[in-house]
Design a protein that fits this description.
alpha+beta; Creatine Kinase, Chain A, domain 2; 2 domains; twelve-stranded mixed β-sheet; 19 strands
């Protein structure tokens, strides 16, 4: 087959060439005047230089804007004397902006000196897809994005956008917002626009959930192949922010804005198909049971769980949410967040859940700060490794992990998820297979930035420290 997942610059350009005229005509008919070829940086954030539609053909031929990626994106392995990077748009990843149809975003790949740039996260996922295909497998995924909608009050302070108990003398002790019909109705001016956009995009939105924290929401839309799902998640983050701005609000993907908030996650639900049997989920048996392949895939993911978590929970703040209980929690004390590296059937206290409603592996230790391309690459690679090596994950833990002591978990051989970003990054540095997925330069750059993030965090004096220590000592 044509290896589109590791093309040379010339091959990528030639794959675009016969489609350029038709795509340009389609976009012009839709009213597009401006095109943004977006590459993805180390944090999973899209970057671009807008060009007029008159430059669409040169852009698609790799003759559009060039970028000194190494000067702005935490990847300083190159110097001011080195060549810039070049984007080649992926014509299968064009998104007309729903909030302004005069603009289109095209997800693109980075090249450097006519070869795939070794610090392009989208290319890392493409490499993983290529390697999985060589073993006979294709990966699919859905993501459950959660986020909190906020606004600025009259004093310029950020507050929840949908919270009629804010500042009240008496507030509900029980969880008020989760699934609540009244709050869902109150949120519909924002939600309706979002729902309509996602439906128009053809993503097959299943539902919107008023989640546990005030002003927190979750979206459930249909799965697709891992590259397309990654592009969709990045585009969704843009869409949500733009819609919120129109309503005088903003969206945050920070996992834990306050102690009392439920954590905002972004669970990855992955399934797999065999190249020789497209359309057939290999995690399900013909009679609807779970297959051996799903157990082996879980085994591969569990072997590398700490390194995966360094990518899927990528900030200092991420680890504030991976705890079993929180005092002063909105709606109780139990977080429903994963804390241990186990799997179970519909057990939400496990990292890896095999849900009762679908044949997939749900990794619950993920949030919206992740670089989704790197996260998908890690999941696909280690699931394939688990299947090909028939890695035994052991028995499922179909009990409440929160009720077990540290000593009991240790006796059962159950590992704790990393408790801090520093611990996760240390694990990433020790995982040789992770270096294969990311490449040595990207792994080193990612670790250097995250180590710096950890050091800067520990140089800050927090309000908690002042309250705890200032008068005690």
């Amino acid at each position: 087959m044509s290896d589109i997942y590791m093309e040379s610059f010339a091959d990528a350009v030639e794959r675009n060439r016969p489609r350029i005229a038709a795509e340009k005509e389609r976009l012009e008919k839709a009213g597009v005047n401006y095109v943004m070829a977006a590459w993805i940086d180390l944090h999973g954030i899209p970057k671009t230089k807008p060009v007029p539609m008159s430059d669409f053909e040169p852009l698609c031929l790799g003759k559009g804007p060039q970028f000194a990626v190494h000067s702005v994106s935490y990847v300083p392995e190159l110097t001011p004397a080195d060549s810039d990077q070049v984007v080649v748009p992926d014509l299968d990843a064009i998104y007309i902006c729903p909030w302004d149809s005069s603009m289109a975003i095209i997800f693109s790949d980075l090249y450097w000196q006519d070869a795939p740039y070794n610090l392009c996260p989208r290319m890392a996922l493409k490499r993983a897809i290529r390697d999985a295909a060589k073993e006979g497998y294709t990966g699919y995924a859905g993501v459950e994005p959660e986020f909190i909608v906020m606004k600025y009050d009259e004093n310029g302070q950020p507050v929840k956008a949908f919270d009629d108990d804010l500042g009240a003398a008496v507030t509900p002790r029980r969880q008020a917002f989760g699934y609540d019909l009244e709050y869902s109705i109150d949120s519909m001016p924002f939600l309706k626009e979002m729902i309509d956009i996602i439906e128009d995009l053809g993503w097959n939105l299943h539902d919107v959930v008023a989640e546990g924290a005030y002003s927190q929401f979750e979206l459930d839309f249909h799965y697709t192949n891992m590259l397309e799902m990654s592009d969709r998640l990045v585009f969704l983050r843009i869409v949500l922010k733009e819609i919120a701005k129109k309503h005088g609000m903003f969206v945050t993907f920070m996992p834990k804005p306050t102690i009392g908030d439920w954590r905002s996650g972004a669970h990855i639900n992955m399934s797999m198909q065999h190249e020789s049997r497209p359309g057939e989920n290999i995690f399900a048996t013909p009679d609807g049971d779970w297959s051996d392949e799903v157990r082996w895939a879980v085994g591969g993911l569990m072997q590398h769980a700490e390194a995966i978590t360094a990518i899927t929970c990528s900030t200092v703040n991420s680890y504030n949410g991976l705890v079993p209980r929180v005092g002063g929690f909105e709606g109780g004390t139990v977080t429903w967040a994963p804390t241990n590296i186990t799997y179970g059937f519909n057990n939400r206290s496990c990292q890896f859940r095999l849900p009762q409603s679908r044949h997939c592996i749900e990794n619950r230790a993920c949030d919206m700060t992740m670089n989704v391309y790197l996260a998908m690459a890690m999941h696909l690679t280690f699931a394939v490794e688990g299947i090909t090596k028939k890695v035994d994950p052991g028995d499922p833990t179909d009990f409440d992990l929160y009720s077990k002591t540290e000593a009991e978990l240790a006796e059962m051989g159950i590992r704790r998820l990393p408790r801090t970003l520093w611990s996760a990054i240390q694990a990433l540095g020790k995982d040789a297979a992770a270096e294969h997925v990311l490449g040595p330069v990207m792994r080193r750059s990612y670790m250097e930035y995250k180590n710096d993030e950890w050091e800067r965090y520990h140089q800050a004096v927090t309000d908690w420290e002042v309250q705890e220590y200032l008068r005690l000592y």
